[in-house]
Amino acid sequence: MPDTKRNVFFLSDRTGITAETLGLSLLTQFDSIEFHHTILPFIDTCDKARHAVQKINRAAQQTTCQPLLFSTIINEKIRQIIATSNGVLFDLFATFISPLENELNRPSSTLVGRAHGRGQESHYKERIDAVNFALHNDDGASTHDYPAADVILLGVSRTGKTPTCLYLALQYGIKAANYPLTEEDMNSRHLPTLLAPYQNKLFALTINPLRLHEIREERLPNSRYASQAQCEHEVQSAENIFRHQRVAFLDTSSASIEEIATTLLQQCGLQRRLLG
Fold first, then answer.
1. Helix, strand, coil proportions of the chain in percent (round to 5)?
2. Pick from 193, 207, 200: nearest CA to 254
3. Which among 4, 14, 174, 181 could bridge 168 via Cys, Cβ 3.0 to 4.6 Å?
4. In this model, does residue 56 exceed pLDDT 70?
5. 3-state secondary structure of 80
6. Which CATH entry fits the domain spanning 120-268: 3.30.1380, 3.90.1720, 3.40.50, 3.40.980?
7. Interstrand relation of 176-180 and 68-71 (parallel, antiparallel or unpaired)
8. What is the pLDDT of residue 1?
9. Where do the domains of the chain lie?
């Protein structure tokens, strides 16, 4: 019977984000296997490459299966060193660069850091501004910046509003605020008065009451706030408001932050501001 556990290494001459993202996307298709992940970033010298090979080989000795290696390393000498390890190498750049060179009829630049570096400088301030906006307008703490918001997330407590706002800021440069519905808000079928002028910017998050109960129990166990009855009441009341006020909403019960953000961008007609 095949092993149900496997060591996986993500190797990069920069942060490893590209290697990890692409590798994990592929590995999600094998949910019967437990993967142990290790990120080895900034492998930009031969010495660092040899050190990485030692780590990979130690992992290979501890199991009957070879580790899986997902690499986005550019330098040819470093790539050759990594290839000597006792792992199964998936060279993500080599897979696509050669066909692209043939199609475009010119060689690639082979510059380290291009996967995340190109255009970063010009977008750095925009990214930071969006993150600061999300932090300053989190959980209804401040509402005077709402006119500058690209989107305002609405929902009961613990539906994923804050992490979604930060993800939108970091990945897309979107200025996202969020407003938590209180019990007072939910006694009415109308939007809170201060949100009325921004209805075209609103997008709501909801969640299965049982899942909300589980999340809140981890934070405040055995509290009224976390009780299943309270969770059911809040979710039902909030969704009634969303439907009555025609605010689009998304169930986040089993959705990842990436899925929530992508759906929001599509439904709100927002465009990504950052190149990467």
1. 50, 15, 35
2. 207
3. 174
4. yes
5. helix
6. 3.40.50
7. unpaired
8. 45
9. 5-116, 120-268
Cα–Cα distance for residue pair 22/66, rounded to 1 Å: 20
Side chain identity, residue 63: T
103-142 pLDDT per residue, tens: 888 887 765 555 555 455 557 788 889 999 999 999 988 8
In SS3 terms, 124-156 reads as HHHHHHHHHHHHHCHHHCCCCCHHHCCEEEEEC
Whether the Cβ atoms of residue 159 and residue 214 lie closer than 8 Å to each other: no
Band (pLDDT 50/70/90 cuts) for residue 275 is low
Q: Which residues is 176 bridged to in the sheet?
A: 151
**Residue 109 burial by CB count (10 A; 0-12/13-18/19+): exposed, middle or buried?**
exposed
The pLDDT confidence band at residue 271, using thresholds 50, 70 and 90, is: confident
Rg over alpha carbons for the chain, rounded to the nearest Å, is 23
CATH 2.40.50 matches 5-116: no
Report percent pLDDT > 90 for the chain: 68
